[in-house]
Design goal:
It is built from no helices and 9 strands. It has a single domain, classed as 3-layer Sandwich (Rieske Iron-sulfur Protein), CATH 2.102.10. With about 100 residues, the chain is mainly beta. It has strands spanning about 5-10, 20, 30-35, 40-45, 55-60, 60-65, 70-75, 90-95, 100. The chain is globular, with a radius of gyration of 13 Å. The strands form 3 sheets. It has a 3-stranded antiparallel sheet with strand order 1-9-8, with no helix packed on it. Strands 2-3-4 form a 3-stranded antiparallel sheet, with no helix packed on it. A 3-stranded antiparallel sheet has the order 5-6-7, with no helix packed on it.
Length: about 100
């Protein structure tokens, strides 16, 4: 069973821009961005060492962690530095102009 939560309005997320949204009951924010028009949502914490990703950089489809520079391909979640690390991607649903993500 999925836990689907409303994160933001679609208009809150611009192409190539990282946005962090607090979700009640969740420790880290949810990061939402658009890559080539696709809405992508990921946890706001790096799987490497629990560094917040909200201050990271987005270069094309690559999210760069501000803590140690680990790079994650947002299309797949794969880490370019460590094949054992993966940034989870949350399923995204658009409902009436809002962005909903499945956290579980």
């Amino acid at each position: 069973m999925a836990l689907r939560v409303r994160v933001c309005a679609e208009t809150d997320v611009a192409e190539g821009q990282l946005r962090a949204f607090a979700v009640p009951g969740v420790t880290w924010p949810v990061i939402v961005t658009r890559v080539a028009g696709e809405l992508i949502a990921v946890p706001g914490v790096c799987p490497h060492e629990d560094v917040g990703l909200a201050g990271g950089a987005l270069v094309g489809a690559t999210l760069i962690c501000p803590g140690h520079g680990y790079q994650f391909d947002l299309r797949s979640g794969r880490c370019q530095h460590d094949p054992d690390l993966e940034l989870r991607r949350y399923p995204v649903t658009r409902i009436d102009g809002d962005v909903w993500v499945d956290l579980l």
